[in-house]
Every structure is written in C-alpha cells, then in structure tokens.
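User: Hello! I'm new to structural biology and keep hearing that structure can be predicted from sequence alone. Could you demonstrate with ATP-dependent 6-phosphofructokinase? Please show me the input and the output so I can see what each looks like.

Assistant: Of course. The first part below is the input, the amino acid sequence of ATP-dependent 6-phosphofructokinase. The second part is the output, the predicted structure written as tokens.
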Amino acid sequence: MEDVEKFDIDVLGEAQYESPLGLSKRKGDDIFNFVTDKDRVLRYISLNDHNNCIKGEQEPVALEKAGPREKIYFNTKKTKAAIVTCGGLCPGINNVIRSLVMGLHYFYEVKEILGVRYGYEGLIPSYGHGFVDLTPEYVKDIHQFGGTILGSSRGGQDVSAMVDTLYDNGIDMLFAIGGDGTLKGANAIGEEIAKRGLNISIIGIPKTIDNDVSIIDKTFGFETAYHVASPIIRDAHNEATGAYNGIAIVKLMGRDSGFIAASATISMPVVNFVLVPEMHFELEGENGFLETLRRRLDTKQHAVIVVAEGAGQNLFNKDGQEKVTDASGNVQHDDIGLLLKSEISAFFKKLDYEVTIKYIDPSYIIRSAPANPGDSVFCSGLAYHALHGAMAGKTKFVVGRVNNQYVYLPITAVTSTRKKINMEGGFWFAALESTGQPFEMR
C-alpha cells in the first residue's frame, strides 16, 4: 500500500479571497459546487483493497479532488498568469491553451495572460523569444488546429534563470503543458521558488501522446492518436490484401509504452501482429517472428503488422555503444520499422518466397493532428481544473483523472515511474485476442 502522505499537495499559503465563481452552495451529489481539500477520491476502488484497509486498520489511499474552492489565494484582478508548452507535439495542446485563457479571463477575471514562446527556452531572455499576450480573441479559433501556437522545444534550461524571469515579469502562476521531462522541470522550478520564498504557483498539465504518465487514467492526445491511426491501419490492410502474400507494416509512436499501437490494433481489428516495447520477441527460430509470419502467409496470404517505435530494441547490436539521448534525456531508439522491413524481405528472399511489402510511418502526421471530440472535452476539463487549483494557491501539482474523477497529484508522484502495458493484464490479452498472434515469439 502506498504512503498516503506522498499525495499531499503543497500550498503557497492561506486562501483568503472569495471566489468570483457564482456557484450554488447547496450540497448534493448531483450539484457541481465548491469542493474542499478534505474531499478525496480513492486511489484503489476494489472491495478487496477496501477490506484489506479495514483489516489492517489503515487509512485508504485517497487523492485530493480537483475543482473550484470557495476561498482562493490570489487576488484575481491583480494576477498575472503564463502558459508554456514543451516537448513533442500532441493533439489537444491548443485546446488546453484556449481553455486556460478562457477560464482565466471569464471565470476569474484575470486580464494578463502571457504565452511563453518555444518551451522553457522562452523563460531564458538570451534566446530572445519573448512573450505573446494571450487574449480570448487571440485564442478563440486555435482548437481547430493541431500543434501549439506557442511553439515548443526540448531540453532543460537553467532553473534559477527561469525563476528570475517569472519574478521579474510579475508572473504569479505558470501552467506547464508537457510530458515527463517538462513536469520534472516544472517541479524543479517550484522547488527553486519555494527556496526563495516566492508566491508563484507551478501547475503541470500532463501531455504525452504515449499515455505513459503513471497513476492517472490517461493523458490528452492519446485517444486522438489511435483514432487517427485506425483508418491508416484499415488502408494498410487494403494494401496487404491487394497483393498475393502482401505484408503491410505500420509503425506508430510509443517510445517505451505501447498503448497507441495496442489500442489502435483493438479499435481496428484487421491487425495480425502487434509489437510493443513491453514485449520481448526474436526474429529467428521455429517460434520466432519470421517463422510465425511465414505460417500466417501460408494460410491467409496476407499480414498486417503494427509496431511501436520502441519495440524490438533487443534486436539491434549495441554492445559497447553508449546510449544516445535527445535534448530531453530520452533514449533515442533504433528504427524497428525499417529493420523489420529489411529482415522480412531478406528472410523470404532466401526462401524464394515471393512477398510484397508496404511500409507506412504516419507518426508525425498523427501527433500534429487536431484533437478529436473526446480529447477536446478532456482537454477542457484538465484546463479548468488546473486553473481552479492554481487559484487556490496550490503548487507543484498536476491535474489528471484517476478512476474517472479529476484529482490533483504532486508532480513527484507521477514522474517517479512510467506507465507501461501489463503483459499479463486484460488490456494486453484483448490485443492478443484481436490479432490471434502467439503469446510469445521466441
């Protein structure tokens, strides 16, 4: 059982101002109203977990419920907010920016909202990126487009210099939209702010298309990713069946977690093999992938393969080689898609077995797509709950959904590990049921 205290949220001080939100103060499960810090959401919801807490006389692990507070910390008419987007592109970033601006302006009457240009670089004056004034008029249509109107970048910057910029520009709260590296950077900024005794709130909104942020149900953009991938897989199937012994390989994003590949496979059940980073497979051998693929072609004369970008890294000879990382510290993987295409071609050529291979990599098209309706709704919820927490003076936290409820979590709680597919869980079994592939290919 996890330590209850690890989910406590830091606050800047006592909330003394009346919230400008005109919510009813009546109580009731069907009324959207102010919530208090004592309102909690259970981390584990099974009856077995509940009974274990009773037997052990333990308090169940519960998370702080997100939502508007009746008393807030900031004087909203004197508050200045800033928004920064970091890391790779992801569907829904503009939706979050728009909802933050609209909520800050119309809910809380905040008149000064700055957009930080090109990620954390924008908080370092020497880059010369400057700020952009974010107004409702400026952001009103941006949800229709993918990418980020603020620009993005990877890599860390000098934390002290970034805090200097926040302080010098009178910024009271910073909303950082990004993945694991961005959130760790936000927490470091928050630590430096606390060290200096400043009253600046740091809020993380978790963005990773791979859906690999720990604890929370899902991250925004993930649903759109497999939604956009599904028709691409359908068309790949058309290519594969259009030729005798046709093989279509579709490479999707998923550096360390294969949620996009597996979800797209289940949503478009024409895939015969799905390969993800969490699984170990070999190419050679009686039960290896190549022989398994040959047996598939012998009986069905076509095959569709979906592979996550981080799958099969054990197949590359890396003895004595140093790991290459990007600016965010992520290990850069070798291209499994091109390796599969090459190895499959060589294998069947050696057997004098005629095949037609089509290789499709839509990764950057997918991550640059606008959010679908489901993600659009989710992005708005994340943004609104993030600004409610910020106004209450909470800091170094992220907003997310756990057990389908919006909650606040310390940044450190979600960045300590990465979420991966449980290879013995029901989700992966559903993917295997959809493809019909063997449990192991070794």
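User: So the tokens describe the shape?

Assistant: Right, they're a compact way of writing down the 3D structure. Reading them back into a model, for example: The two ends are 36 Å apart (CA to CA).
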